[in-house]
Amino acid sequence: MSPTPTAAPAIELIGIDKKFGAVHANKNINLTVAKGSIHGIIGENGAGKSTLMSILYGFYHADAGSIRINGETTVIDDSQAAITAGIGMVHQHFMLVENFSVLENVILGVEGGALLGGGVSEARSALKRLEADYGLEVDPDAIIEELPVGLQQRVEILKALYRGAEILILDEPTGVLTPAEADHLFKILGVLRDQGKTIVLITHKLREIMAITDTVSVMRRGEMVATRRTTETTVEELAELMVGRRVLLHVEKGPAAPSDIVLSVRNLTVKDGRGVTMVDNVSFDVRAGEVVGIAGVAGNGQSELLEAITGIRKPTSGEILFHGKPVTGFDSARLRALGLGHIPEDRHHMGLVLGFEESENSVLGYHRDARYGRGPLLDLDACREDAKTKIEKYDIRPPNCRLKTANFSGGNQQKIVVAREIERDPALLVVGQPTRGVDIGAIEFIHRRLIAMRDAGKAVLLVSVELDEIRSLSDRILVMFAGHVVGEKTPDTGEQTLGLMMAGIAA
Amino acid sequence: MSTASVPLPNWITYGLMPFLNLVVAFLISGVVVWFIGESPLDAVTLLLQGALGNGEGIGFTLYYATNFIFTGLSVAVAYHAGLFNIGSEGQAYVGGLGAALASLALDHYVPWYVTMPFAVVGAAIFGAAWALIPAWLQAKRGSHIVITTIMFNFIGAAMMVYVLVHVLIVPGKMAPETRVFLEGGQLPKLDWLIALFGGKIGAAPFNVSFLIALVMCFVVWVLIWRTKLGYEIRTLGASPTAAIYAGIPYVKTVIITMLISGGLAGMMALNPVLGASARLQVEFVGGAGFVGIAVSLMGRSHPIGIVLAAILFGVLYQGGDALSFDMPKITRDMIVVIQGLVILFAGALEYLFRPAIVRVWQRFGKA
Q1: Model ipTM?
Q2: Is the Cβ pair B242, A350 closer than 8 Å?
Q3: Tell me, which fold does domain A11-243 have in CATH?
Q4: What is the pTM of this model?
């Protein structure tokens, strides 16, 4: 591999085409990534980014088209072939054995013989070398589950490099990182590029694209719609290319008019299933007519706090007041009857039953209502009429209330949940990750609905790991770290300040 | 590539695929028959003739099918809630006690149609009671329902033997069984139904229980798909976390579901106890509870599917008897092998042909 100026591109995808039944996931995709560059691929969910990368990594076979690596046509029919071709992948969800050490994880699958001894010492020195070359420091004997997420991700990168990867694919690498950890990752990626590695970054966060990539490709509905030099494009242009129309990136809203306290949380402590204290002595109020946002890196107790407030998990101690009356330990059915709406963090496991038809999900939690059937009977026609109204009002597509919920896209599934909870007109709406895995068009819609709730004098409690979302929707921001509320800020607080608080560094 | 997510029309999923599975099961059974030196074609002819060839055969086939409909429904209701009730066998056995007590108490005084509702309720209550403790243990203590219901099958069997040998036995007799019920404690045969189609019921014990089974099919359909309780049962089965989110009470729903499941299993006893032998005998269930698991799997936990699957197993039971009578080389055990193959292909391997069918469908089906 001579570094001549006319070196062949690291990756060339030529006419890649892939169908899943009726879904055309990739339409005649052409992509060229230069050696020693960072190339971003953005697109909404379902645009075909992951399918394309899965083809490159050998998880799927393309129906048509070919792949060239360093100018040579290469057949990649499984991940082993991808590794041989020098391609490494860092998945969104880490593929690590939690109770193994870093070293053990790195050599997993390339142990080099039946006895571990030789491979281990070889790997140890190789890790030292990689550490020196790329600034990827990590203790080889640390146990994975004891490492913070940022370091676990570093182990994934080390794994790929140890297998001789020249091309690294990272799938949504910053989803679980604090802003500071993300910046650190970008620095490492910069070093890797400078050392001649080629990096493909899949993301839906425009900020990251602008911060770190050299070139960027935009995918929409299975097609590669544009490729730009990052320096020659703008966030607005990319957003428009992704969605196919102009997008409002910021929510337009007037000042809040908070009035009576709707929700009071007093000295609340919550333990998770393993008995670990996840929420520690937390107190706050939410008033009618305001959006209170809870910022924090995932896993700092926000989920458990939400579950305690919405009656899914029993708190260990403390008190929850709703309109001044104690409701601690009520189950979700009783809270719903009192006027608490809940858009859960995880729509697949909580908010929806994916095997049900859409109309059945549009009554979940409210199915005991008299309007959905007298006495013990469930009136399917009433459910379907109700679902049709919501489908129209929330533009849920396809507009078919008999369709199985699993067959709706992520954004439309979320709209089913949002419609169900908002249409009940609750006094308090508790919202977890309202736009996780939701495309930009639907994000805009959901954000507007939440602000409309606030303006109608309802209380909204919002938990999100997307700092942008928290900042643009909230009237007050509470930051959670390690189970504590470490501070309250206004939404115009800088991202860096909030980021430091989320990392537990400043208050 | 995965083809699991490709939607297929219902006639393929519910018609063609089970049919293909059945054909393959019979083809392999044919090979087995051929190995032991009999003609597969003769065997299948004998089997079908024995099961469906005359009024008496049909009567026996439907008599067995009645057992399997009850136990199949029992397994299906629990399955909708995500509970695997292996205890239908024991629940049916204990249900027999409830049915028999009603008949023993009433048969001297009233005609059968007065006894019947008491026997139905008695069987259901006793069956449900036998499901209550495993249900409670699952709901409150998290003891796995598969383990507890299996154990309760053994406990039930031992208890019934005790009751029959020490309590209900006719004094001075050797057989561990109750006295024969008078006509007021029996369910009449459906000879008129067979006669309607020009057949003669002969010795077949096909009786009114079959109609009760069909009514219960409708009741179960309404329960699962047209009531709020059914909605909660299905939610719990499909997504326990969504059930918590929706405020569906886990303990209550599990217990009620298992009571219904046990009650349906208990009603199975009506057929052999009041309909066929007119007395309570040891081991009258004869494995019907376990066949119910296969019937429910094959019928996709839907009443219509369960009726069809129950009739299929009725054919195998009755046809198998006829076959082993006419072809002595094919023993009872061989029939069990064939049943096992049907269960294997129709239950465990139900999606065996799906990928191939999807490919054919994608190429030719969608124009």
Answers
A1: 0.84
A2: yes
A3: Rossmann fold (3.40.50)
A4: 0.80
